[in-house]
């Protein structure tokens, strides 16, 4: 979804009021308990929090001109890859095999067989419609952020078609937007 | 968890900006190589073996590539003017497309307002005036039949409905297969399915 994304797609950015800011913090803290200790560093209470609205009902949470989180419509907040690389353990992880990497990096959704093959790792606890980090066989860092369409158990059972929607991947529009002003 | 987890420092390639380990899948591995040799020699032992004779060439290449990446802002502007060029190029031997297809295009006006144009519905035997009425009703916006650029009629719908329109078209007119619906993105046709 960020395949084509540039500052032109930003339609409005507002500094949000404190109550909204609190709400965002809360939902992020709920979603990613692992982030809680550093949340004060990431979203300092003092510095203004900016929510950027983009096309396709997309919101970016921006602090000091750096996009940190995004969400769609009222969906869950997901960290950007740059943030995830810093704190890799905040999300559930799924691993795809090596053959899938180049497709994922071209923006393809993650298909079930790439997760169930020997190179892939499935976390059985992952339910449907949860944000997950997509790791790759033999690589240290995440290469994409996905949103599961079906639960991990179903992925294993069905083993066909799209398992995880690719939301954000390395070298897409959002990745290139290191700073936003 | 009393103490703060320290942020992991990831080595990002200076050329393609990916984490160094993903350079091999990046847009241009060749250009990354000189940077990798300097900064992350242990990640890719293979490329160290390559001859150093080409080193000089590579450095200039690297310089060029950085120049390109800094000029990235211009790329968006040039891509907008692309579609016309592409059309002109095969002018000598025009391939006539007989396949009927529906092309959906989003035209932005006024920054956050846009118009979705639907072309080619008539090829499936759909009455455009009926269709525009249905679209307007479904999405609660203005929809009208407009003479397109090449004497062809198209439907203009106010607002960005590209997101939902595919499903609507396939539902309302079963004659239109989902595979025949395309989006226009930067002058390229992208299948909707």
UniProtKB/TrEMBL annotation, chain A:
Presence of keyword Cytoplasm: yes
SUPFAM superfamilies registered for this protein in UniProt: PUA domain-like (SSF88697)
Domain of life: Eukaryota
Domain PUA per the UniProt entry, residue ranges: 92-171
GO biological process: formation of translation preinitiation complex
Subcellular location: Cytoplasm
Alphabetized UniProt keyword annotations: Cytoplasm
Xref: InterPro entries: MCT-1/Tma20, Pre-PUA, PUA, PUA-like_sf, Uncharacterised_CHP00451
Record-linked Gene3D superfamilies: 3.10.400.20
GO molecular function annotations of the record: RNA binding
One cellular-component annotation, GO: cytoplasm
Name of the protein: Translation-associated RNA-binding, predicted
From TrEMBL, chain B:
One MF annotation (Gene Ontology) recorded for this entry: translation initiation factor activity
Alphabetized Pfam families for the sequence: DENR_N, SUI1
Main location: cytoplasm
Gene Ontology BP, a term: translation reinitiation
UniProt domain SUI1: residue ranges: 102-173
GO CC annotations on file: cytoplasm; ribonucleoprotein complex; ribosome
Keywords from the named record: Cytoplasm, Ribonucleoprotein, Ribosomal protein
Keyword Ribonucleoprotein: yes
Record's signal peptide: none
UniProt cross-references to Gene3D superfamilies, sorted A to Z: SUI1-like domain (3.30.780.10)
Subunit structure: Interacts with the 40S ribosomal subunit.
Record NCBIfam families: DRP1
Free-text comment on this protein's domains from its UniProt entry: The SUI1 domain may be involved in RNA binding.
UniProt similarity note: Belongs to the DENR family.
Protein's name in the database: Translation machinery-associated protein 22
Native species: Trema orientale (Charcoal tree)
Upper taxonomic lineage: Eukaryota, Viridiplantae, Streptophyta, Embryophyta, Tracheophyta
């Amino acid at each position: 979804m960020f395949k084509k994304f540039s500052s032109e797609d930003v339609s409005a950015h507002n500094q949000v009021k404190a109550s909204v800011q609190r709400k965002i913090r809360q939902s992020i803290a709920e979603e990613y308990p692992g982030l809680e200790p550093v949340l004060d560093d990431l979203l300092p209470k003092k510095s203004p929090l900016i929510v950027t609205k983009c096309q396709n009902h997309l919101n970016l949470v921006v602090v000091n001109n750096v996009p940190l989180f995004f969400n769609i419509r009222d969906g869950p907040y997901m960290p950007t890859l740059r943030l995830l690389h810093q704190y890799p353990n905040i999300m559930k992880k799924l691993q795809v095999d090596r053959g899938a990497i180049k497709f994922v990096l071209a923006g393809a959704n993650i298909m079930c067989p790439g997760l169930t093959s020997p190179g892939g790792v499935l976390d059985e606890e992952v339910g449907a419609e949860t944000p997950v980090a997509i790791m790759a066989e033999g690589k240290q860092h995440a290469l994409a952020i996905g949103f599961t369409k079906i639960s991990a158990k179903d992925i294993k059972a069905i083993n066909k078609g799209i398992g995880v929607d690719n939301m954000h991947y390395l070298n897409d529009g959002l990745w290139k937007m290191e700073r936003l002003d | 968890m009393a103490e703060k987890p320290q942020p992991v420092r990831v080595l990002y390639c200076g050329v393609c900006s990916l984490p160094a380990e993903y350079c091999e899948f990046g847009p241009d591995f060749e250009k990354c190589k000189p940077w990798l040799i300097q900064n992350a020699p242990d990640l890719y032992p293979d490329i160290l073996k390559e001859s150093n004779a080409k080193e000089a060439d590579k450095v200039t290449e690297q310089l060029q590539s950085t120049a390109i990446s800094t000029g990235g802002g211009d790329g968006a502007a040039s891509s907008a003017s692309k579609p016309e060029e592409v059309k002109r190029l095969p002018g000598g031997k025009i391939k006539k497309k007989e396949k009927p297809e529906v092309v959906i295009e989003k035209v932005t006006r006024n920054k956050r307002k846009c118009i979705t144009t639907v072309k080619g519905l008539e090829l499936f035997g759909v009455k455009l005036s009926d269709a525009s009425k249905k679209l307007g009703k479904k999405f609660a916006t203005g929809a009208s039949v407009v003479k397109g650029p090449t004497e062809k009629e198209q439907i203009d719908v106010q607002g960005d409905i590209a997101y939902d329109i595919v499903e609507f078209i396939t539902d309302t007119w079963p004659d239109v297969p989902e595979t025949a619906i395309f989006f226009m993105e930067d002058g390229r046709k992208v299948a909707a399915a």
